[in-house]
Structure formats: structure tokens, C-alpha cells
Design brief:
329 residues, alpha+beta, seven-stranded mixed sheet, four-stranded antiparallel sheet
């Protein structure tokens, strides 16, 4: 009876070991190939350098408009948003050289303008802001010789590139010997993909002095008025523009001065000290426009992370059920 049970156990172990060998030699490489294909698609959304395409970074114009009162954000991915693709050939590049995407939305007269995104850089900005105190129209535009790099997009792109690099160094000629080796690779790839996703989904929390000291304030011609701050960032699949209007607190003010901490979006009433002045945010204008290719990238990240986790689950089963192990004495 015991001999029969041991024979059955040995047969089961042999089957499991054969399945594990198939996992290491075939299924792992099939999943890695699938991951590479998905991430190459993601890299095309970011127009990764060295991706094999000679096309320049696509240029996209985003027409922004504020919906509602001061301090109310405008969400531009509602049904009112319209999308239009226009192919615009560039000299010597062919018809696929440049793509232009125009987004429009409901708008009031408070904030209007256009931001031009080229790859990971804002190459142009043309924004009109109606000041609430006197209805004066203020025009904000980038200097022609300047571009503003969106660090979030650049970082996300670099993490995708690193994930592709890790996968490419385990091609079909490489023989995985243990499940632990697979786990180590998947952990490294998932770390890069998680970082890429987090850079897009988690904007930096900045203090008002940090925004004031940002190089973005020096991007404009004419110079940005001293009572305005501007911030631009990515949140999920949206490009966000925030304009803060400020007023100086008088030395004899009875307000309890309490500097605001870091935040993605500051509210009216937030205070800070800049130079010798104490300032308070009086109005906040925020607009958002959806960038469809960022949405695609986030979907690719999610699918890739799911594939990695599925492969990890198979490679992380109890060791004696996957990897050959010595019979217990």
C-alpha cells in the first residue's frame, strides 16, 4: 500500500516537474514576447527615441476653456468634448510625419487659450485670462525660443524604456533555470511599470514658493505679472493648467498668517511668503484637457502589470510543486 502511494507521489512529481520545465522553456518566453509587444506599443505613444521610427514627435494643440466660476475646475472629457484628427504632412517626412489633435469644450470668457504639446514638451502656449477685479484681458504666451519639458511624461517614458531593456535581455535563447529567476525579472519589470504609471497618476505636491521659483514663470513674454502664478502638470490622462491670482497682505492685516503646505491644487485663501512679501491666493483658474495617447499608455501599463502578476503567480507556487526537489527522508 505504501509502495503504491509512493509510486503515485513520484508520478505526480514527475508530471509537475515536466509542467515546470515547460513553463520555464516555453510559457515564460511567450509571456515576455507578449510584454515586449505591448510595451513597444506604449513606447510609440511616447515617441521614444531610438524606437526605429524617423517621424518627429507629433504636435498636438489643446484648446482650453474654463467652465463655471472661479476656482471650479473644468473637466474636458465629457460628451461636450469633440475630437478631430488632421494629418499635416511635413516637408521630407511624408504624410505620417505629424498629427494634430484639437480638443474643444464648453467655455466661458474667464480662461481661453491653446497649449501645443510636442512629445514631452510644451512648445507653445497662448492663453487669455479675464481678470475678475477689472475684467481686463491678460494675454500669456511662451517665448518663441523656449520649450517647457513635462518631467512626468519624460520620466514615464524613461521607465518604459527601462522595462523594455530588461525584457530584451532575456530573449528566447536565454534559458531560465528556476522560478526564483522568473520572479526576480518580473519584480524588476513591474517596478519600472509601476513607477511609469505613478508618474502620470500622481502629480507632484508643490508649495506656492516652489511654483513661484519654477522655471515655468520665466517662459512667458512679456514677463508674467508678479500677482500671477502658473502651473502645468499631468494628472492621469489629462493635461492640467492652473493659474493663481495673488494679492499682497498688508503689514497691518489682522489675518492669521499661516503658510500653506504642498498641494497639487491650492485653494483661494492659501498664503505664502515670497521675498519680503506675504501673499494670498485670491482666485484659482483650472482647466483640463484629455490626451488620448496618455490614456492608451495607462491601459498598456495595466495590461502589462496583470501579465507580470499572472506569470509571478505561476512561478511562485510552492517550490516542491514547481521545481525539482529531493524526496523527504
Amino acid at each position: 500500500m505504501m509502495a503504491t502511494a509512493m509510486a503515485a507521489t513520484g508520478a505526480e512529481r514527475a508530471v509537475l516537474e515536466e509542467e515546470f520545465r515547460w513553463l520555464l522553456h516555453s510559457e515564460v518566453h511567450a509571456v515576455l514576447k507578449q510584454l515586449q509587444d505591448i510595451l513597444k506599443e506604449a513606447s510609440l505613444r511616447f515617441t521614444l527615441p531610438g524606437s526605429g521610427t524617423e517621424s518627429p514627435a507629433k504636435q498636438e494643440n489643446f484648446i482650453l476653456g474654463s467652465c463655471g466660476e472661479v476656482g471650479v475646475q473644468c473637466i474636458l472629457d465629457q460628451p461636450a468634448v469633440s475630437q478631430q484628427w488632421e494629418e499635416q504632412p511635413m516637408a521630407g517626412r511624408g504624410a505620417s510625419g505629424r498629427s494634430r489633435l484639437t480638443l474643444t469644450c464648453c467655455s466661458t470668457d474667464q480662461v481661453k487659450g491653446v497649449l501645443t504639446l510636442q512629445g514631452d514638451a510644451l512648445s507653445q502656449a497662448d492663453v487669455n485670462l479675464k481678470m475678475p477685479r477689472n475684467n481686463q484681458l491678460l494675454h500669456l504666451a511662451f517665448r518663441e525660443d523656449k520649450q517647457w519639458k513635462l518631467q512626468q511624461i519624460q520620466d514615464a517614458r524613461n521607465h518604459v524604456s527601462q522595462a523594455i531593456y530588461l525584457l530584451a535581455h532575456r530573449d528566447e535563447s536565454y534559458q531560465f533555470k528556476t522560478g526564483a529567476e522568473v520572479l526576480k525579472l518580473m519584480d524588476a519589470v513591474m517596478l519600472q511599470l509601476t513607477r511609469a504609471r505613478n508618474r502620470l497618476t500622481t502629480p507632484a505636491t508643490l508649495t506656492l514658493p516652489e511654483i513661484a521659483a519654477s522655471g515655468l514663470t520665466r517662459m512667458f513674454a512679456p514677463t508674467l505679472p508678479s500677482d500671477l502664478l502658473v502651473n502645468v502638470y499631468i494628472n492621469l490622462n489629462k493635461l492640467c493648467l492652473t493659474v493663481y491670482q495673488l494679492h499682497a497682505l498688508q503689514p497691518n492685516s489682522t489675518k492669521n498668517f499661516r503658510p500653506a503646505g504642498g498641494a497639487v491644487l491650492h485653494s483661494p485663501g492659501a498664503m505664502f511668503e515670497w521675498g519680503s512679501q506675504r501673499l494670498e491666493v485670491s482666485h484659482v483658474h483650472k482647466v483640463e484637457c484629455v490626451i488620448p495617447w496618455l490614456n492608451d499608455a495607462l491601459v498598456y501599463f495595466t495590461v502589462s502589470l496583470q501579465l507580470c502578476q499572472q506569470l509571478k503567480d505561476k512561478a511562485a507556487r510552492p517550490r516542491c510543486h514547481l521545481e525539482p526537489c529531493s524526496p523527504q527522508h
